[in-house]
Amino acid sequence: MRLFIIGFRRAAAAAAGSGLFVLPCQQQTRLVTRTVASSAAAYIKSSTTCSFAQTAAASLAQGVKMLDARKTFTEDFFFRQLFDEQSHTYSYLLADITSKEAILIDPVLEQAKRDAQLIGELGFTLKYALNTHMHADHITGTGYLKQLLPGTVSVISQSSGAKADKTLVDNETVQFGRHVLRAMSTPGHTNGCMTFVVEEQGIAFTGDTLLIRGCGRTDFQEGDSRSLYRSVHERIFTLPENFRLFPAHDYKGNMETTVAEEKRYNPRLTKDVDAFVELMSNLNLPYPKMIDKAVPANRECGLFDIPKEA
Fold first, then answer.
1. CA–CA separation, 302 vs 144, rounded Å?
2. Rg (CA), the chain
3. 203 falls in which pLDDT band (50, 70, 90)?
4. 70-79 as b/e, with b when 16 or more CB fall inside 10 Å?
5. Lowest mean pLDDT among 25-29, 164-168, 240-244
6. What is the number of alpha carbons within 13 Å of residue 172 lying toward its C-beta?
7. What is the value of pTM for the model shown?
């Protein structure tokens, strides 16, 4: 650029010697700068500009799709998310406001009195206490809730190996009032993992199979990485993209996600299956602190009261 300007000025000086009209020096520099800038702009091909625009439009379209309107809960549907700080477990109370029939998903032993009190205060009758799987990080509250709220029916997957009043197979449903929950088999974290779906409300409860930007570990309790990957991609990720997903745990303060978000941003499950298996095989996670106490208790306490030593 500097050499170009010097050459231009020499030519201007020669022109001045010949009697031709010449611009002042500063105006010459501005003219050269504008000329070079115009040439550079012209050099950018229209196809390149279109490519930028197309990329931006595609990104915007993805963002809009990811934020498609969620389904609004019907007026007769009650939803409450509950939390246990010790195990970072979410429990979910759902109910039919008209009939007052309620269900509780993934209750925790230490919170059973809290949950029973809330159910009583709201005037609900607990019909079912369900577990998404046989947990290894806390003892379920189903046995204690059966004692606190007589008539409660405990529910878990038939494949879990745990005892309960009612066991479910893939696509079996339970009803509370007029509302229906479908149990969808999603093994991988354990053999008995299920995702509970309430289609009308656009929600699913994924247990430990799919977490927010993560997934359950697969290195114990019949865990299988390939099976978990299939469960997520073939069962959960095929739900409508605006479905809200609620996991059994979160350790970072997140409360919910959506199918679209996890398909785009989950750092584990956006990988191909082989990369996912390799990643899960090299997590080197510590042995679960509660597993030796929780698993034996959870095999029994869906049906019986909590053992005294628990």
1. 9
2. 31
3. very high
4. eeeeeeebbe
5. 25-29
6. 12
7. 0.79
